[in-house]
């Protein structure tokens, strides 16, 4: 139970009722017997700057997680961001130092890669296709490129969004990334859906069946959508006998990373 | 356990670890099975304005309690205050309306009077002495004057502070209030210590023994200090066989009032 001495962490977003972090964090704090709690703040966009200003003087807050739609706004308001957060122009976690200074990081992509590693899927030398070049896709593309993949293809229903991300990645990783036109098919070891298609009943399946059919037997289909846990894309991959990684698994790996940042065990 | 859908209320102050409200509120919310929690915010004075600005966009916050040293600062920043809060220039509770509008009240004095009423002590026609004309003393003096006391005397170690409060009260309650010089003694039905003397081991006993000796057998000694629960003043009153009301009893009555305000059952 929260008391006057409880240390706090927060998650901000709008809407907020869909997030899983408070349950995950609060169960963890309870399990290890820490007098600490995570609160979820449903915060309107035009009050994000007030929140960040206030947090500097909020002595018993140790940090906060940032979710949609505040990740870019917060990145611009804090004192320090990690190189990957700067590159992505977004943060998903901010640590408050005792003097009120705020430093942020972006762990969306690293959380995804951690989850793949945890299940023993080696990335070095592999080829991957990433569908959806938005915020989640950009974070995961960066984390994948950092692993030493042989080849990262990016596809988006808006072709220009995919090529812009490829251009940006090519500056840092010259021989790794290319855009894949919709309709094209090649054999990929890993296919990741980073598009929102699959959240709702009538969404189209975002990965062409020809691409799923071309994957090797030891290939992996991965998803960022957490609800439903088994999206049409993952169901199609399972039907082909492929291994799958759900958005829920990614979220759990993400939680472990965020937890370390909040505990001060991971650098921000 | 706090989740993503938990509605929140807060208490702000600095320091904050000494407050009892989070335990009281959270036990109450748990008892009635409400998915609601109170969090304690240790907030630096120069960030109070940021906090109030942010609260307007904090959609899942229903209100907040204000404690030392932010009661006056918050009163000046919100949209509406009750007449008594305006008179006192301070609020101890703010309700956030769904559109972000903030309205505040000051229940420190009414909580004290409620506690006296709850134990059957009738105030109408009685005489009272109030020691300490600071923020708590002013709030309680106003609430006592509103009950129809015959006579309210006010004493402070700084005589001018007592006479300033008497002058201010006399505008609204012309024949009720007077200052009592230190050293003077008269028989009072009720004596209230609103000074901080009694919080620490070596503090002087703030009420002259001559005043305690002059009280009638059915007289009442009351205290605002919550820790220690039995202050030197209350112990002296008990030694004379008088009834006493502790600061803890006042705080519990106060909690019931705040609870009603937060529930929207009491007007702010």
UniProtKB/TrEMBL annotation, chains A, B:
Q: What GO biological process terms does the UniProt entry carry, in alphabetical order?
A: aromatic amino acid family biosynthetic process; chorismate biosynthetic process; shikimate metabolic process
GO cellular component terms listed in the entry, alphabetical order: cytosol
Which Gene3D superfamilies does the UniProt record give?
Leucine Dehydrogenase, chain A, domain 1, NAD(P)-binding Rossmann-like Domain
Q: Which InterPro entries match?
A: Aminoacid_DH-like_N_sf, NAD(P)-bd_dom_sf, Shikimate_DH-bd_N, Shikimate_DH_fam
Q: In which pathway does it act?
A: Metabolic intermediate biosynthesis; chorismate biosynthesis; chorismate from D-erythrose 4-phosphate and phosphoenolpyruvate: step 4/7
Question: What Gene Ontology molecular-function terms does this entry list?
Answer: NADP binding; shikimate 3-dehydrogenase (NADP+) activity
Q: Which residues form the Shikimate dehydrogenase substrate binding N-terminal domain?
A: 11-94
Q: Which Pfam families match?
A: Shikimate_dh_N (PF08501)
Designated name of the protein: Shikimate dehydrogenase
UniProt keyword list: Amino-acid biosynthesis, Aromatic amino acid biosynthesis, Oxidoreductase
Species of origin: Agrobacterium albertimagni AOL15
């Amino acid at each position: 139970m929260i008391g006057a001495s409880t240390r706090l962490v927060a998650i901000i977003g709008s809407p907020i009722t869909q997030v899983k972090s408070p349950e995950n964090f609060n169960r963890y704090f309870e399990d290890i017997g820490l007098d600490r709690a995570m609160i979820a703040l449903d915060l309107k966009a035009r009050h994000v700057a007030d929140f960040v200003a206030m947090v500097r003087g909020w002595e018993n807050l140790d940090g906060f997680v940032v979710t949609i739609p505040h990740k870019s706004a917060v990145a611009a308001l804090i004192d320090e961001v990690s190189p990957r957060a700067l590159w992505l122009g977004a943060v998903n976690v901010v640590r408050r130092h005792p003097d009120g200074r705020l430093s942020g990081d972006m762990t969306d992509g690293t959380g995804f890669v951690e989850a793949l590693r945890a299940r023993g899927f080696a990335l070095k030398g592999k080829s991957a296709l990433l569908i959806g070049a938005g915020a989640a896709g950009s974070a995961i593309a960066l984390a994948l490129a950092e692993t030493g993949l042989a080849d990262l293809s990016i596809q988006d229903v808006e072709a220009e969004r995919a090529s812009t991300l490829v251009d940006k990645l090519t500056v840092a990783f010259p021989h790794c990334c290319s855009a894949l036109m919709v309709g094209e098919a090649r054999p990929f070891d890993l296919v990741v859906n980073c598009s929102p298609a699959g959240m709702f009943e009538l969404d189209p399946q975002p990965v062409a069946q020809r691409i799923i059919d071309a994957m090797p037997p030891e290939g992996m289909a991965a998803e960022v959508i957490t609800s439903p846990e088994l999206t049409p894309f993952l169901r199609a991959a399972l039907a082909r006998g492929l291994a799958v990684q759900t958005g829920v698994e990614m979220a759990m790996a993400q939680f472990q990373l965020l937890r370390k940042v909040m505990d001060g065990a991971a650098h921000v």
